[in-house]
Specification:
The chain is mainly β. It has no helices and ten strands.
């Protein structure tokens, strides 16, 4: 059934070995799902150029593009706090490194780029004392809180 709810929660699960929450929107009658900034900040990393073979099935095009996150954005919110928004649809990102964004500003459209099985947003909240090099390969953030177990999907 169509949903736009978290599938996995917080930190690394045994299956996915990653941090963040995946928001899946599987309703193909809704062609575009906007992704907006969670809070004010500065865009410090943008990865574009990752394709996708389909919106609603396993992406077979360059799955490791963007270190597996596909087209993605990292925003610095100050005090070492960062958010990552990943798997944008190709050619939909509308932000650039150095750009200031406000909570609710449009970043791009939910997609299926990178290591992805269906259209979704991978949202991550983390800390980084080193910052992000916009010209280097994507790097993970450290978790803000200790790892939490995978939460079940609500029906």
């Amino acid at each position: 059934p169509p949903r736009s709810t978290p599938l996995y929660s917080s930190a690394a699960s045994d299956v996915y070995k990653r941090q963040g929450i995946d928001y899946i929107h599987g309703d193909d009658s809704t062609p575009y799902i906007p992704v907006v900034a969670a809070s004010d900040g500065e865009v410090v990393y943008v990865r574009t150029g990752c394709g996708q073979t389909s919106m609603f099935s396993s992406n077979a095009e360059n799955r490791e593009c963007g270190s597996g996150w596909g087209n993605h954005v990292v925003i610095d919110h100050g005090n070492g706090i960062h958010t990552r928004y990943a798997h944008f649809a190709p050619s939909t990102l509308e932000v650039a490194v150095g750009q200031q964004v406000l909570a609710g500003d449009f970043l791009g459209e939910m997609g299926n780029s990178g290591r992805s099985e269906t259209r979704h947003l991978h949202f991550e909240l983390g800390v980084s004392s080193q910052g992000f090099d916009p010209c280097a390969p994507a790097a993970p953030c450290a978790p803000v809180a200790p790892c939490a177990p995978v939460l079940p999907v609500a029906p």
